């Protein structure tokens, strides 16, 4: 799994690439929480994620909860089909704000 960070307006955009599993989900968690702890709203780009397990989903949920507690925006963008299937199965597609692009999320 690879992580790329960039800024889109006031948002920290964390782009993930590859498989997110028990082995690499702590890195995902650290990246997301690190930005939120600097009081930056976060967009997680999941376009290039081919697989995500429950530990990866837990990292996203933890980020969402921290953002909510800090009154910061948190959204998923460009969600791949593989990730969307897992989100739908867990009914989290109704919980997370999901946008087609980072620009759409920033404008929302």
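-> sequence recovered:
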């Amino acid at each position: 799994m690879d992580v790329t960070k960039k800024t889109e307006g006031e948002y920290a955009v964390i782009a993930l690439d590859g498989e997110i599993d028990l082995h690499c989900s702590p890195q995902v968690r650290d990246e997301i929480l690190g930005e939120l702890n600097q009081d930056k709203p976060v967009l997680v780009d999941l376009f290039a994620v081919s697989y995500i397990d429950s530990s990866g989903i837990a990292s996203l949920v933890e980020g969402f909860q921290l953002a909510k507690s800090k009154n910061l925006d948190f959204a998923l963008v460009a969600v791949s089909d593989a990730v969307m299937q897992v989100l739908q199965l867990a009914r989290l597609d109704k919980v997370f704000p999901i946008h087609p692009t980072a620009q759409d999320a920033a404008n929302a």
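The beta strands are 2-8, 11-20, 42-52, 74-77, 98-99.
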